[in-house]
Design brief:
Length: 321
């Protein structure tokens, strides 16, 4: 509940005093591959939840390539109760395999369709107008299944411009994490695509994309944050999405816009704003409490209505991975 809440308080209600704190929606990484962390979901939650991250849009393709669909389903189940929600976004790379050689006995297109039908699935990722050029049975079938199920189509528009970019958007692409310049960002915005600014370990496009907002006047509501891939040492020492929020403010983006890029904009880009991204009636109770809107020191993190972290300490108990 938001606002007047006296009718919701009973003898078993736990009241948490947030006097002097700003309450923000929980942070969302709108595009990440988890292989770089080299952690199970349970251990990853211990690192990320204290930084305010409550949801990851991810694919588990590295895990699927090696361990098959059983390993992916096991991690989805293990994530329950960790405070870190998995927004599943399957990727055909799990079928193609390491080095694109593929191993259909380990992970098949049928497995990919199974994941598209999973309750955690929100998106089919890394798509563009060239996505079915490889002579492998099943890619178009998977794409058509995603459309039939109403899943968001996440883009991979690296190097595309003009007619090719427009064709990709016509196929339903809603987001782009591969933009590497302000010019590319502006063209994607002109075509109605949400630009996911990368600030991870493998790709670092933050400084090249932020000027689209701060210097060229682009609408910040059309940008979100993602890491794409981030190594454990960086997550633990530098932070995660909270690090990008702080950096955005230092680079001239208003605190409110920076928070929206980490929350509501990220949710809209993957089609989950009915559940995530704002502190409003009917959304999940995932909330980050901070005491300063310039440096964003994270004092408390609530995940699904439960206090999950306080002053950098992870508070939830999970079964051993």
């Amino acid at each position: 509940a938001v606002g007047e809440v006296s009718q919701t308080i009973g003898q078993n209600t736990e009241i948490v005093d947030c006097t002097g704190l700003y309450l923000l929606p929980g942070f969302i990484d709108s595009h990440i591959h988890l292989g770089g962390s080299q952690l199970t979901v349970q251990r990853l939650a211990e690192v990320l939840v204290p930084h305010g991250t409550i949801a990851l849009c991810t694919d588990f393709y590295e895990l699927g390539t090696i361990g098959g669909i059983k390993a992916v389903l096991n991690e989805l189940d293990a994530a329950k109760g960790t405070g870190l929600d998995i927004l599943l976004s399957p990727f055909v790379a799990a079928v193609l395999g390491i080095g694109a050689f593929g191993n259909l006995e380990r992970f098949s297109y049928d497995d990919l369709e199974t994941l598209l039908n999973h309750e955690a699935c929100v998106e089919l990722r890394e798509w563009n107008c060239w996505a079915d050029w490889l002579p492998l049975e099943g890619q178009r079938r998977v794409y058509e299944t995603a459309l039939r199920l109403g899943k968001t189509i996440g883009g991979h528009l690296e190097g595309l411009s003009g007619a090719e970019l427009q064709a990709s958007v016509a196929l339903g692409v809603m987001s782009e994490h591969e933009a590497v310049s302000a010019d590319e960002a502006m063209e994607r915005l002109d075509n109605g695509v949400m630009v996911q600014i990368r600030g991870g370990s493998a790709a670092r496009d933050f400084d090249d994309l932020v000027p689209a907002i701060t210097e060229r006047g682009a609408d910040p509501s059309r940008f979100s944050f993602c890491t794409d891939e981030q190594e454990l040492s960086s997550m633990a020492h530098d932070g995660h999405i909270d690090r990008l929020v702080r950096r955005a403010v230092r680079n001239g983006i208003s605190p409110v816009d920076a928070v929206r890029m980490a929350t509501l904009n990220a949710a809209k880009g993957i089609g989950i704003e009915k559940d995530y991204g704002s502190i409003t009636p009917g959304r999940y109770g995932s909330i980050v409490a901070v005491d300063d809107l310039a440096t964003f020191p994270i004092r408390m993190v609530f995940a699904g209505g439960e206090l999950a972290a306080r002053d950098g300490e992870y508070l939830l108990k999970t079964e051993p991975a």
